[in-house]
Amino acid sequence: MSKEKAPLPPGSNFIRGIIERDLTANKYAEKQWAGSPGNAKHHQTAPVDPAKIRTRFPPEPNGYLHIGHAKSIFLNFGLAQDYHGICHLRFDDTNPEKESQEYVNSITEMVQWLGFNWENASENNLYFASNYFDEMYQAAELLIQNDYAYVDSQTADEMRENRGTLTEPGKDSPFRTRTVEENLTLFREMRDGKHPDGRHILRAKINMASPNFNLRDPAIYRIRRAHHHHTGDKWCIYPMYTFAHPIEDALERITHSLCTLEFEDQRPFYDWLMKKLVETGMLSQPVPKQTEFARLNLTYVVLSKRKLIQLVEEKHVSGWDDPRLPTLAGARRRGYTPAGFKLFTDRIGVSKADSWIEYLIFEDCMREVLNLDAERRIAVLDPIKLVIDNYEDGHSEDCFAPNHPLKEELGKRTVQLSKELWIEREDFMEEPAPKYFRLFPGNMVRLRYGYVVECTGCEKDADGNVTVVHCNYLPDTKSGTDGANSVKVKGNIHWVSAAHAYEAEVRLYDRLFKEAHPGEGDRDFLQDINPNSVQTITVQLESSLQSVNPGDCFQFERHGYFVADRIDSVKGKPVFNRTVTLRDAWQK
Ligand code: ATP
Ligand code: MG
User: Fold this and answer.
1) Same domain, 187 and 60
2) What confidence tens digit (pLDDT) does each residue in 267-287 have?
3) Which protein residues are within 6 Å of ligand 1, measured from CB?
4) What is the pTM of this model?
């Protein structure tokens, strides 16, 4: 990059820079779009594309989406939104193996959950690459007819041997000089099922001496008798991904094809193929351009599909939507929100250099968003009884707790106070530690939204464990009344009335891996699993939480953010998952 170039504006990145330059240069001013994907002829008489740019998110339906995909989703859909463009959701399903409808369904659901849509009034931009098999086949024949591709009949071993090395050029295949007619006949026979799997392969004819391996006559079509989840048994030859992908982009008139860095070396082939298909008349300019960005790597997380599948299949987790998994299905169940993902992807930005992002940054983004979005509720996670001895038996009264300290408009809700309360076990110490300001005999604390109480002592069981704490309340000190400030105390604890609270199950989640880089070096990543990544506890919750909806998020005061689980409930009452603590516990 030249030094004079003006720095990009904040929130910007090199991809925006490219798009802005392309738009300024009117690169797409005459690009036509027929309203659906197709070759040059299909778009030839169509109006100019109303979308200023076209991007696509192209998942292969061979697994569940994860946090890394979210980066790509926000990038592609986000750029389209920002530049009056359109983003396609395209299933890259050209590989018949390992792909299924189950994955297709979960992927569409998750893209929508993140807030994106591929449909508008006039277009539905949901595509399947397998719908383009005819065009891909046509492209292959065109390459053959123009002597840009040939059928190679070497064995796999021979092909490997002749591929050359980093320092040595490859050797031309003895079949490289086949005539166009011979190639066409053989390729059609391949298509018609006349040859067994692996007998022949179609290769682009580029340059066996190229320093870039990907230009040493890459394979573009192979024989594979496999059932495809969309096209069934119609085809027994399938295009290679590197051949299929540029064609998919071109048929959809994508302007900016964004992919992760490992495809950088493929870009010359991408451009070669586009050029040749324009030359043959199948495609027209402007053709899509590939730009690479760094994939997301997160500490304490594995994002490899293979490893995620292993975690699920070997039952190290409860399923694809286990709240400890980095899948979007798991993240949603964990209580992470689309707004949190947006903040995260904005904050980490897009760059061209691979790096690791600290998991802390991800959690901080979730905290930041939940702090604004989540209403407050009261939960006692490790309950012990507190009895207010001078409070009238059988009586109860209303206290008023703000739903959100930063959003007065959300009002207050009523919580009931009565003689017996549940408080956190750690809010009482018979022998206080230094600087301990909560309950201990003789000390006063405020019951949040209620009265100041003075601790008078406790009861213990035969083993010396505290079973009940006792106190008296100071009747003039109720929060919100004139006397509230008459007594100054240092401690302020939360509570729920035993007569009004209800018992519930809460799951405290922690990191699934105890090492920042699971499986680093020669270690098996499974060895790095955190044995204490989930703890199920029985808690006391304020009664309003009984009737919330699955997926509702709350801050449990003093504890963190929790979400009503989307799947599990106990006796019709929600189970809550801890999304994230208020502060980072791993920092201590
Ligand atoms: P595979 O190993 O099966 O190719 P993949 O993670 O690349 O796995 P795809 O379904 O091909 O999965 O990914 C869809 C899109 O998401 C691609 O454009 C890819 O670049 C992007 N993507 C995948 N993983 C990440 C990641 N960790 N960070 C950013 N983008 C990602
Ligand atoms: Mg991929």
Assistant:
1) no
2) 999 999 999 999 999 999 999
3) 58-60, 62, 68-69, 71-72, 259-260, 295-296, 303, 305
4) 0.94
